[in-house]
Design a protein that fits this description.
Fumarate Reductase Cytochrome B subunit, elongated
């Protein structure tokens, strides 16, 4: 009964909650006010030019958008953690394999679903399968699954070790940082253990995915696989409420803060947004911020600052 609940209702609930919360977070980001832009150059979508300001009368020219250069920059950061490699190679040694473990794990789940669909249609996903496609799916599933567990476990352990032993990292680490890494170690560690001791061909978990797709979940056949699925469900439920949701925020960070170089046009949505934001009233004051008044009035000057009388 417990194994059926974990492999069925709990798994459905975890997937549904993850999707709902992720969509809600994206919707929230889309509705937030415009962020203060960095205005740092070069901007990838400007291509080799790097900056439109290098051209004469740039304001009258059609904006240049290079999707190739933008995708190139994004892929280098997402797949290879480029900035950590350049600026903090010590952390990169753990961050890169951890992220690679997550990417391979996502591919593994997709391949499990693909294998389940093949088996639903009468193809056996095994090493000796008579179908070339089923055989390819079988071996790639093995590669991505094992690679995910090994890389993710290694990267999580390295980062946990660094946060524990490195003075600078230990100083900025809180209990949530250790909780997240501990959960990742448990997730990848249980996956590796279940594969090595109970499900070397991933046939048990593929059968379970088949049942989920057919809306007829089965009782998980192995206690180790049951435990691994339980940890996965906990991770999936926890993920959208945690700091790890930065994978959603990164798109907005790059496109709305780092790379947004759209020029303000008269009567444009941007001008209307900025005009509305200038009517906001700060609830604090400082040496450079006057007491009371809107941001528009702050910019115009003349309001008393902290310590001033008027």
């Amino acid at each position: 009964m417990i194994s059926w609940f974990i492999g069925g209702p709990l798994t459905y609930f975890a997937i549904a909650l993850f999707l709902f919360k992720t969509i809600a977070t994206v919707s929230k980001y889309l509705k937030m006010p415009r962020h203060l832009r960095w205005d740092l150059y070069p901007v990838p979508h400007q291509g080799q030019e790097g900056s439109k300001y290098q051209k004469v009368d740039f304001a009258g020219l059609k904006p240049h958008i290079s999707l190739y250069h933008e995708l190139k920059e994004m892929s280098q950061e997402m797949l290879f953690i480029k900035r950590a490699f350049i600026h903090n190679p010590k952390v990169w040694k753990g961050s890169f394999p951890l992220h690679m473990g997550l990417y391979l794990g996502t591919a593994w789940l997709v391949l499990l679903a693909a294998g389940a669909l093949l088996e639903i249609n009468g193809f056996q996903v095994t090493a000796a399968s008579g179908s070339t496609l089923a055989g390819v799916v079988y071996y790639i599933t093995l590669f991505t699954g094992i690679g995910s567990f090994v890389a993710g476990l290694w990267g999580s352990a390295v980062l946990l070790w660094l946060r524990t032993t490195d003075e600078d990292l230990h100083f900025i680490s809180d209990y949530v940082s250790y909780l997240n890494l501990g959960l990742m170690i448990l997730l990848f560690g249980m996956g590796l253990t279940a594969w090595g001791l109970a499900d070397p061909s991933f046939s048990i978990i593929r059968q379970q995915v088949t049942g989920l797709l057919l809306l007829n979940p089965l009782s998980v056949q192995s206690p180790l696989v049951t435990a691994a699925m339980l940890v996965f469900c906990v991770f999936l439920i926890y993920l959208p409420f945690s700091r790890m949701m930065h994978f959603v925020g990164k798109y907005f960070f790059y496109h709305n803060i780092m790379w947004d170089d759209e020029m303000m046009q008269r009567n444009s949505p941007m001008e209307q947004d900025i005009a509305a934001y200038l009517q906001y009233r700060p609830t604090w004051s400082a040496a450079h911020i006057g007491k009371g008044g809107t941001w528009g009035e702050q910019a115009a000057g003349g309001l008393p600052k902290d310590g001033e009388q008027k």
